[in-house]
Design a protein that fits this description.
105 residues, alpha+beta, Translation Initiation Factor IF3, four-stranded mixed β-sheet, 27% strand
Length: 105
């Protein structure tokens, strides 16, 4: 009985996104993800991946900057990131590094 209760509790804690200390580290929604076109976060972080968004829609229609930022945030959120930094642009895309904060701001 104790073993079942222990493992059920442990599973609940892991699936709810909390550490054993009870502090949540991930952004709670995509709009919480921060975008840094210049500079970097003031807290320590770890790079966990890359985000890339095409600058153009179907048939070459240019995306608005707000839509590009929204897509960068969604990609970072989907991968468990807290921010996108070191953003670069070329003719066809916007790229950045997805980071996870080491501690909550």
């Amino acid at each position: 009985m104790f073993r079942t209760t222990f493992f059920a509790t442990l599973l609940f804690v892991m699936l709810s996104g909390f550490t054993m200390s009870g502090a949540a580290f991930a952004a709670e929604k995509a709009s919480d993800v921060e975008i840094f076109y210049d500079g970097t976060p003031k807290v320590s972080y770890t790079a966990i991946g890359r985000a890339s968004v095409d600058k153009h829609k179907f048939l070459g229609i240019k995306r608005k900057q707000e839509e590009i930022d929204k897509r960068l945030k969604k990609q970072a959120f989907d991968r468990g990131g807290d921010a996108v930094i070191k953003i670069t642009e070329d003719f066809g895309s916007v790229n950045g590094v997805i980071v996870k904060y080491s501690k909550k701001k």
